[in-house]
Amino acid sequence: MQFDPIITNPGRLSILTALLNDTQQDFVTLRKNTRMTDGNLTTHARKLATAGMVTIEKAARAGRPVTIITLTTEGRTAFEQHVHRLTDSIKPGSPAEQPNLVQEPQAAAMH
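RE: above sequence
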């Protein structure tokens, strides 16, 4: 079972989780909600934006610059698929519970 490495990273998972209930947050609010440093939040938000899971917009609020991060439909769908894969992996009879059926290559017979 494959998990999306973009989502499985703890920092990016934290951002997506924070955006699930409040899909649009300014940088300061999201930083508070994720407890990330400015640099980590910036780096992980950019990776999510590159993957199409969030958008990052610069705006002005009361004459001051503000960065708005918004969860996209694609981001919500990717997160939901991730959750489904996780829950499916713990169900009885899931591939995670099956014995490893991959056979190791046999060593060449020694003469």
